[in-house]
Amino acid sequence: MPSPSERPRIDFVLGGARSGKSRLAQTRAEASGLTPVLVATATAGDAEMAERIARHRAERDARWLTVEEPLDLAGTLRREARPHRILVVDCLTLWLTNRMFAAADIPPEDVDAAGRALAASLPDLTGPVVLVSNEVGLGIVPDNALARRFRDHQGRLNQTIAAAADRVTFVAAGLPLVLKGRLPEEM
């Protein structure tokens, strides 16, 4: 278990769909020795998403606390952070989607401002946080304006959070590649 001085306060894990990023975040939280708290941003808008949420919930044991928050992520993190807890935000991609649909009639720069406000709040948290996000910019250019706008906002959000993070890990095929910071010796 890494000592508190070795543990990154802001840990950012990103990768593609089904890459193993949530599993890595969960493993890191459980190895921390702190009380793990999942901050879930998903909403069960249909049966398939309800199934995904149930599957993720079943993968966590009784140590985990769960807080559901689809929109006010910075406020929730400030409220839930404690020195004896480690927060896992899963995931920023769904939070961004929720923000975009909730704010469909506001200028695009306001969506990016929410990401900057989130990043600015992270250093003030009283405990560590692991943030999970999808990397959506590695594929082809989407064929519609909304998907292109989402991809652009997601890319800017990932850059903003990565700049604020102590450690950034990209996960592909279940394998972590540290882009910033370092892995603890036992990983």
From TrEMBL:
Active site, renumbered? 56 (gmp-histidine intermediate)
Q: Which UniProt keywords apply?
A: ATP-binding, Cobalamin biosynthesis, GTP-binding, Kinase, Nucleotide-binding, Nucleotidyltransferase, Transferase
Catalysed transformations (reactions): adenosylcob(III)inamide phosphate + GTP + H(+) = adenosylcob(III)inamide-GDP + diphosphate; adenosylcob(III)inamide + ATP = adenosylcob(III)inamide phosphate + ADP + H(+); adenosylcob(III)inamide + GTP = adenosylcob(III)inamide phosphate + GDP + H(+)
Entry keyword annotation includes Cell membrane = no
The protein's enzyme class = transferase
Q: Does the keyword Protein transport apply?
A: no
Pathway listed for it? Cofactor biosynthesis; adenosylcobalamin biosynthesis; adenosylcobalamin from cob(II)yrinate a,c-diamide: step 6/7; Cofactor biosynthesis; adenosylcobalamin biosynthesis; adenosylcobalamin from cob(II)yrinate a,c-diamide: step 5/7
State the EC number(s): 2.7.1.156, 2.7.7.62
Source domain of life is Bacteria
One GO molecular-function entry = GTP binding
Q: Which GO terms describe its biological process?
A: cobalamin biosynthetic process
Q: Which Pfam families match?
A: CobU
Record: residues binding GTP? 15-22, 40-42, 57-60, 68, 90
| Biological function | Catalyzes ATP-dependent phosphorylation of adenosylcobinamide and addition of GMP to adenosylcobinamide phosphate.
Entry's family note:
Belongs to the CobU/CobP family.
Note the PANTHER family from the entry. BIFUNCTIONAL ADENOSYLCOBALAMIN BIOSYNTHESIS PROTEIN COBU (PTHR34848:SF1), PTHR34848
The protein's name is Bifunctional adenosylcobalamin biosynthesis protein
Species for this entry: Prosthecodimorpha staleyi
Q: What is the name of the gene encoding this protein?
A: cobU
